[in-house]
């Protein structure tokens, strides 16, 4: 079992930045493939970014490339999402997700992940 706890959300003005953190526990962090998703009101949960277990490979939804950066610190068992130049349309609940690095899966799909955090709210005002 894996426990994920997000933090770092909040209210920010358009053009501002935030760094989200997701602390993991319960299983060797280096065996986990990690991702961030987000869900805006009235919309489905959507893929934001993912990172391999070593951090050597990262993946982003095309529309967010250049503004969002995912990283991880295996010593701290934490994954981060750095967000810059935030826009009102980035307003959503942001979720951290994890799965075993092994097996076949599509990293951008919600059902690829077995473990989820409770989410952290990000609100971007115009």
Provide an overview of this structure.
The chain has strands at 3-7, 10-13, 18-25, 32-39, 46-51, 58-60, 68-73, 78-83, 92-100, 115-116, 120-125. With 126 residues, the chain is mainly beta. The strands form two sheets. Strands 2, 4, 5, 6, 9, 10 and 11 form a seven-stranded mixed β-sheet that branches. Strands 1-3-8-7 form a four-stranded antiparallel β-sheet, with no helix packed on it.
Summarize the structure.
It is built from no helices and eleven strands.
Q: Outline, from the CA principal axes?
A: globular
Question: What radius of gyration results from the CA coordinates?
Answer: 14 Å
Strand elements, count: 11
The total of helices stands at 0
Main beta sheet strand tally, sense and closure: 7 strands, mixed
Helix content range: under 10%
| Uncertain regions spanning at least 5 consecutive residues | none
Mean pLDDT: 96
Structural class: mainly beta
Pattern of helices and strands: EEEEEEEEEEE
Oligomeric grouping of the chains: single chain
How far do the termini sit from each other? 40 Å
Strand content: over 45%
Please supply descriptive tags for the structure shown above.
single chain, 126 residues, mainly beta, seven-stranded mixed sheet, four-stranded antiparallel sheet, 0% helix, globular
Set down the secondary structure blueprint:
Blueprint lengths: L2 E5 L2 E4 L4 E8 L6 E8 L6 E6 L6 E3 L7 E6 L4 E6 L8 E9 L14 E2 L3 E6 L1
Parallel strand pairs: 2-11
Antiparallel strand pairs: 1-3, 3-8, 4-5, 4-9, 5-6, 7-8, 9-10, 9-11
């Amino acid at each position: 079992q894996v426990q994920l706890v997000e933090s770092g959300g909040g209210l920010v003005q358009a053009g501002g930045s935030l760094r989200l953190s997701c602390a993991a526990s319960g299983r060797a962090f280096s065996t986990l493939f990690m991702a961030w998703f987000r869900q805006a009101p009235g919309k489905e949960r959507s893929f934001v970014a993912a990172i391999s277990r070593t951090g050597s490979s990262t993946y982003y939804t095309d529309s967010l490339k250049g503004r969002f950066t995912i990283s991880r610190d295996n010593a701290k068992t934490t994954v981060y999402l750095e967000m810059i130049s935030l826009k009102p349309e980035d307003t959503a609940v942001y979720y951290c997700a994890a799965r075993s690095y092994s097996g076949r899966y599509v990293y951008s799909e919600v059902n690829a992940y077995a473990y989820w955090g409770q989410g952290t709210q990000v609100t971007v005002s115009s």
